[in-house]
User: Fold this.
Amino acid sequence: MQTALEMRSKPVADHTPDRPLYDLIELFFFAYRDFVGDPDRILEQYGFGRAHHRVLHFVDRNPGLTIAALLDILRITKQSLNRVLKELLEKGYVEQRAGLTDRRQRLLYPTPRGKALAVDLARLQTQRIARALEETGLDAEAAAKRFLAAMIEPAERPTVARLSHHDDEDGA
Amino acid sequence: MQTALEMRSKPVADHTPDRPLYDLIELFFFAYRDFVGDPDRILEQYGFGRAHHRVLHFVDRNPGLTIAALLDILRITKQSLNRVLKELLEKGYVEQRAGLTDRRQRLLYPTPRGKALAVDLARLQTQRIARALEETGLDAEAAAKRFLAAMIEPAERPTVARLSHHDDEDGA
DNA sequence: GGGGATATGTCAGTGATGTTGACATATCCC
DNA sequence: GGGATATGTCAACATCACTGACATATCCCC
Assistant:
């Protein structure tokens, strides 16, 4: 016996499950925090922040990138970009060359020093991801949860899980 | 025929693959940006920011939370917490009650209004995750990539992929 | 019951990163 | 030659983090 409400067929692309996916929401938050936390420790020693990391990363990955393209990727204003980019240029981690066809453009390239730092930071983040992948069995939602949980510092994981599993205390 | 270097057995828990996992690094960055971007638009209408969202979320999820426990979860200073918490209290989204056993504690609870906002924001993020899960086939690394790519705004995804797939241009 | 530890609140200053708005310069292209 | 485009820069401001210092209330132990 079902009410009409319970019986109504779900729209094709509803994407709203019956229950909020609190676990995944929180796992994503914690996983990202640790994901950016790794590079943060290194960057501090260079007097750089996350903003510098993002710029260096995308310049390293897309050598010859224009300012406009970089702004497109980062979705920040040119004033915000300019501040960190200027520091990367001054400290010799990135260099500019005039565009070949369009000389208004400033094509961005990593210097050897910049390349080295970018690779170093990528290696750090890769390690965390690689470990997470190793620890992940993978199959649908349960698999995604396991993957993101594995992205969190092992020492933190139990606490996080405990905090998220209060579902059973409101009598459900 | 392998050199000694190539033959050396990998340490048990190395977690460093031969190649950096650039795709996953970038997908994680973009996915998180969109994940927090959804709530941002709503929060703006209330004069709140991401910091308020995080506090409201964890108070809603863990009613009766103490300040100390909240600081532990968020890993920020009490001064940082206090500013946003005060606003949530003043605007009536969170309320404090003295601890039952320890009256020094300020137990935090969402008000009905706070609960409503928290649920609304969770619903938004749940929708994105749910859609991503639906679009994900899941099996090991390839599955994780697909999952995170699906977390990115559909309109953005092709661009992102294009920018990340420059691997083949350096002759490899 | 006095006193140190604990939980929380608050003031003041600073830093990193983002924003808007306005304007300058160099180059491109019709 | 002149408008559009790519970039650089100055100034002011918002958010959210930090450190350091200090105040208050309550707990708990000797």
